[in-house]
Write a structure and sequence with these properties.
By secondary structure, the protein is mainly alpha-helical. It has helices at about 30-50, 55-65, 80, 85-100, 115-120, 130-135, 150-180, 195-225, 235-245, 250-265. The two termini are about 25 Å apart.
Length: about 270
């Protein structure tokens, strides 16, 4: 029995393939993953800096000529709707990247994905920017006396937006798990062929993500809205760290999924 081709190992029909006439090759997987990691680190640093109330307040104060951005003492409830903005920025960036990819010349348009396909696929990528913000959310805060810390609002918004992005990302993760199950690829001896190891990494990462999604997304929503602060706790910081850790489990699955996919797809 011959080994399946790489095209047959991808759970969806679309592919971003350079035209043969261009003699163009995609960058090596290590370059792709390294670039993505570097962008994530840069976004995280800027997110932590701009997420501080002091920094963002100063920016608003300057831009509004002193009308907005004054120091706020107490607890802000804006996070209950402001999570829409980081969510919209993520989805908007995904849509823009998808559009630029789809219209790019030099690729086989017959196999090119639709914009919304690629936009949803991008939601499976691991994001690290929300993790430090969520950990800093209640640093210096006094929830019993309704006093926010420097990153309380930003951390809450980031946690809620990440939970929703994880829920959206389950679309492609679920398809991958279903593909692996119906073909028996979760059994190691069924992947003893070229590219089988990369396929196994991809489908195991997707399974890991899907199984932990209810716990991870649920923990992030609880952390973002701070429901548990209605009940007294001796060590609330431990609850924060625990919830962020549970919410971050899906991040590991995302990395495995994307790493396996990039290595498996190659120039497809």
């Amino acid at each position: 029995m011959s080994a399946p081709s790489r095209e047959e190992l991808i759970p969806w029909s679309w592919a971003i393939t350079p035209l043969a006439s261009n003699n163009r090759q995609c960058p090596p997987p290590a370059i792709l993953l390294g670039t993505f990691a570097g962008v994530n680190v840069a976004a995280t640093v800027f997110g932590v800096i701009l997420g501080s109330r002091k920094v963002s307040g100063k920016i608003f104060w300057v831009l509004s000529c002193g009308r907005f951005g004054k120091e706020h003492i107490g607890s802000s409830q804006a996070y209950k709707f402001m999570w829409i903005f980081p969510l919209a920025l993520n989805l908007g960036a995904n849509a823009l990247n998808a559009w630029m990819t789809v219209i790019a010349k030099g690729y086989d348009q017959s196999t090119m994905p639709r914009i919304w396909d690629l936009m949803l696929f991008y939601c499976t990528r691991p994001r690290i920017g929300w993790i430090p913000l969520a950990l800093l959310a209640f640093r210096g805060a006094d929830m019993e006396n309704l006093k926010d810390g420097l990153w309380t609002s930003a951390g809450r918004q980031a946690a809620i937006a990440e939970a929703i992005l994880q829920i959206i990302g389950v679309y492609y993760m679920g398809r991958t798990v279903h593909f692996g199950a119906i073909h028996g690829y979760f059994m190691v001896h069924h992947t003893e062929f070229q590219d089988g190891a990369n396929l196994l990494v991809m489908i195991i990462g997707a399974l890991f993500f899907v199984v932990y999604l209810p716990f991870g997304a649920g923990a992030l929503i609880v952390h973002g809205f701070g429901f548990y602060y209605r009940f007294p706790a001796k060590k609330p910081r431990r609850k924060d760290a625990a919830l962020v850790s549970v919410g971050g489990v899906g991040w590991i699955g995302s990395w495995l999924f994307i790493t396996g996919y990039v290595r498996l797809a190659g120039d497809l």
